[in-house]
Design goal:
- The chain has 80 residues and is mainly alpha-helical.
- The chain is built from seven helices and no strands.
- It is 49% helix and 0% strand.
- It is flat.
- It has a domain of 50 residues.
């Protein structure tokens, strides 16, 4: 059997500590808009840089005017 040219994903990907420890809270996957408006949401929903460091902005998300302006402001290329 020939050797694979690619490194297995589990040797390349760095798993976040909260996922590794089992402390990953499902509420980080959907914002509570009331908490966001009141300034009580988790950091990921209060800080745009934090949000986009963890989220993949899809085409439709990137096309929203406020998101498009933010992406241009911080210099993300191709939404990545």
């Amino acid at each position: 059997m020939s050797k694979l040219a690619w490194t297995p994903w589990h040797k390349v990907v760095k798993i976040r500590p909260d996922l590794k420890s089992g402390e990953l809270s499902l509420n980080i996957f959907a914002a509570d808009l009331y908490d966001v408006a009141m300034g009580k949401a988790t950091l990921v929903y209060q800080d745009a840089r934090e949000f986009f460091s963890r989220a993949y902005p899809t085409f439709n998300l990137r096309e929203l005017p406020a998101v498009k302006e933010f992406i241009e402001h911080i210099g993300i290329e191709d939404g990545s």
